[in-house]
Predict the structure of Polyprenyl synthetase.
Amino acid sequence: MDAVTLTAPRAHPTRDRGDAEALARLAKVDMAAVDALILDRMQSSVPVIPLLAEHIVSAGGKRLRPLLTIAAARSATADRPDADLTAALKLAASVEFIHTATLLHDDVVDGSERRRGKVAAHLIWGSATSVLVGDFLFARAFELMVETDQIRALGILAQASSVIAQGEVLQLTRAHDLNLDQETYLRIISAKTAELFAAAAESGAVGVGADPKTTSALRSYGLNLGLAFQLADDALDYGGSSEALGKNAGDDFREGKVTMPLLLAVARTRGREDAFWDRTINGNQRTDDDFRRARELIVGTGAVSATLDAAGEYADAAKTALGVLPNGEWKAALERLADFAVSRAS
Amino acid sequence: MDAVTLTAPRAHPTRDRGDAEALARLAKVDMAAVDALILDRMQSSVPVIPLLAEHIVSAGGKRLRPLLTIAAARSATADRPDADLTAALKLAASVEFIHTATLLHDDVVDGSERRRGKVAAHLIWGSATSVLVGDFLFARAFELMVETDQIRALGILAQASSVIAQGEVLQLTRAHDLNLDQETYLRIISAKTAELFAAAAESGAVGVGADPKTTSALRSYGLNLGLAFQLADDALDYGGSSEALGKNAGDDFREGKVTMPLLLAVARTRGREDAFWDRTINGNQRTDDDFRRARELIVGTGAVSATLDAAGEYADAAKTALGVLPNGEWKAALERLADFAVSRAS
């Protein structure tokens, strides 16, 4: 294959590629403090708990959600470099605990085999232990939040937790439904993914006593960023705009999971490919050849680029929300993160 | 068999039989308000959530834990009949949500088939949905607590939740361990059962602004009552002091669960019955005949009456803790509940 054809035309050729590194660098010291808190508070005298928790927590991932809490707190106090971040650090660790608890339960619910490049915890310690350690981390999150004495931040994260659980149930009951409309799909990912991004940023702002305008802007940034990330992830699962497949590409299809690119392709091939989709998604019969064919249809109908267009719009909305914040390195880094959310799939 | 021999000698022949009715009657109006709150807050736009929640919530059970929250709030305000119970009612509903969430997860973890006289929810809606609806109810509990604006009560129930989860994991890893010592067993039931009784009562006291002495007395009452209830339950599973078996008798043995009567009997038949215990508990091979034999050994070695003696001591400690409270109908009803905890197994 000709090297020139390796990359399909970009959905947004003018979009800055952005990066997540600028933010990670700025937040390095704060995130080290968050990591220390996480490590300290996942301890228990019941030996398997820290073992299992460490397995998933130390695998790390990007710590994107607590990073958002810190970034929100820092950007809201850009004019107060000596602002007290004690509460925000604890809220950031709480956010990561909530996220980790949902991952543990998700993997049990989906029967997933891998998580963060490692064997999923429930395959090592059993589903029962994974469920209970998830419960423990969730409870620990609330214990940590109580320490901040910030009942408003607590309310934000409690509500987010109930929204997430409802989103999970909604997804579970509609996961293989080819008739899912786009609105319902967006409702699912808003609840499952974007809500915690929103709450992470909002609670960081609340944790440093930001004014309502700033707080609401940061919440809006988080929500839109979360949607952009999820939609770009959905596109990446079919290779994004690149012809080269990423290492986890095909996972959604293999699990028969209905995502935006698939929904769009199903709609755009209505009357032509119904039997194929019915067999592979509703009928749960999927081979590697089927994935190749699904990908052809999804890329060929423009479903991937339409998904990336939508992701781009959410990223733009995220950046727009930041408008009310004073300019500075934190704001700039958040803008670059929004661009990166989409460009990594382009 | 002669009717006279149907009842074995009582462990505590002088103990008042007590009852749970006096308290239920006193708390009738408050508990109706709690029930209304529970029904209202378990709603969700995701249809399966209220369906599953109603299945387990409306099966009812004794609502013992929220009843404790109400009783604590009322007995701490015996001299203020017009005290505002809004927060206590919400805390009571939160306590029931936390309890229900743990039941849903427990049944998945244990693979239990029945709950509160009904088919267990996970057998109807699947384990995945049960786990996620449990998460939802747990999150809802915290949302409800946030509404009370009582960060201290929140801290009590957050800590209780993490203690419960740790107790569950500890039990899971030691459930079939015949070498479990009594101290570890008491640690497990303190965490799994008594902690929520303690937190339920304590948060009720905090919710009405009770003084530290009253609050701590009510916590102590709840903790000791929880231990008394659990030990009496353990005894009941082998028929208690009666020769007639209750309807759920044998469940613990059938699940190979190590409880106090079994631990005592194993210790008291050491060297004689090791092979029997090893096969039935460690080896997981149990017939109905095995249950009859286990029960003979457990009753014959006095393990049941020793368990009831221990339960009686905790019930007495619960009543003693109430000493600092002003006399009145609520205090009297709590005393009768402590007696009932044990006598129902005698």
Chain B has 16 helices and two strands.
